[in-house]
Amino acid sequence: MLDILKAEARKAVELINDYEFIRIFAHYDVDGISSAGILANSLLRKDKRFHLSFLNGLNNGNLDYERDELTVFLDMGSGYPDIISEVESDVLIIDHHFPMGKIKPRKRFVHVNPHLAGLDGSFELSASGTAYIVANQLGKNIDLSGIALTGIIGDKQKIKGGNAEIVTEGITGGYIEERKGLLIYSGKLRDVLPISVEPYLDFYKKDEELEDFLEKAGLDGDMEVDELEDEELRRLSDAIILRILENGGSEEVIQDFLGKRYILKAELIQNALMMTDVINSCGRVSAFSIGFGICMRDSKFLDRGYEIWKKFQTELLDEIKRRKKEVKLANCIRYLTMNDAPTTGPIATILSRYLYSDLPFVAVNVKKDIAKVSSRTTMKLSEIVDLGQVMHKAAEKVGGRGGGHRVAAGANIPPDRVNEFIEEVDRLCCTALGK
Fold first, then answer.
1. Residue 404 pLDDT > 70, yes or no?
2. Taking 90 as the threshold, does the pLDDT of residue 258 lie above it?
3. Which pLDDT band, with edges at 50, 70 and 90, does 101 fall under?
4. pLDDT band at 253 (very low <50, low <70, confident <90, very high)
5. Taken in order 231, 229, 167, 310, is the CA torsion positive or negative?
């Protein structure tokens, strides 16, 4: 299956080689920014110039490009056949979202997407991983495997399929190191655990509760995570698992942080989880250039990236603390409606994975002229409920657009039709669940 994808990647390279200047549009999240970092690094090594823009999506269809350029879409495009079909230039899509509808290109067109090669883009290959495969057909770019891993982690994917091959290549090449431990931040336990969102432990502004947790686990809060002995790691792991389950978290999330730590030997931030979250934070607050600069290994962006991450992290934890009391229960979903919240996806992710994992979760953030929707569920529930299809159908019914993966999807809808949308999502989920 990867051979099929690599064959399509070679077609992408043939298209790229015909141009000295390339127009790139990338999604603004960590997977999109990582994809842009991978493609940009590989293009520069071929002495090719580019103009890069980060977008929230392709909903408005207003794209600034020239007809005689190659237009590239990273971590987007597969779900917008009507918009892509209107692009009057050669087009390359490097994406991992499930393709919706038929694209009718005006000129030459290459679509590199794991779903089209028989791979599951929801779990087995991220957009950054797909971009990495293209980059390695363009030249020898195995050193970019660590950047691909940030997108894999950021999109909550599994180290299997294409993702596993990328990590193995990175380890073999000496660019990724796999160590025994936990996929959590580096630093003192007392500093790290309260600000952790993956895993989310609900210790933020709960100092006494944290000290009690550490005492029961037989751990000193001044211990460095990276220096814990095997027995100390075991006690910490057991205590974290118990904490997650007591808070209502899904058993699935335990496997996401248990057992392995990844060190990115070639990157400015070597803790893979911290690299992921710093880039993600930059994307979420529209500081795309900072996250991209870190992916380009430019150290002058590092301090600013850390500042953005710390500020974003505390604001997100404050928001979760407030919003978790506002979650409502419908027949077959849990949902949250917000007005002008600073972020939507991360709130939906944490609430659905760690506090309300029993049903599909939908978060709606109403802005002036649009309502942004993020939906999440567990992998077990996603085998029954395809959120990508639910978001697509429900959004279409109310005059919006939606789609995504089975386990995580989104939509943009008119603000005055939020209630109708929630009712339709609930109905579709009930139908899928047989209720």
1. yes
2. no
3. confident
4. confident
5. positive
Return the number of other C-beta atoms located less than 10 Å from residue 184's C-beta. Answer: 22
For 122, the 3-state DSSP assignment is: coil
Nearest to 92 by CA among 289, 103, 213, 167: 103
CA 73-79-82 angle, 5° bins: 90
Ordered domains of the chain (ranges, CATH): 2-176 (3.90.1640.30), 189-318 (no CATH), 327-433 (3.10.310.40)
Backbone angles phi, psi at 65, to 5 degrees: -150, 170
Per-residue pLDDT of 356-398, as tens digits, reads: 989 999 999 998 889 999 999 988 899 999 999 999 999 999 9
Q: Which residues pair with 366 in a beta bridge?
A: 339, 371
* φ, ψ dihedrals at 266, nearest 5°: -100, 0
CA 426-428-430 angle, to 5 degrees, is: 65
- According to DSSP, residue 352 is labeled I
- Residue appearing with tokens 């505390």: 314
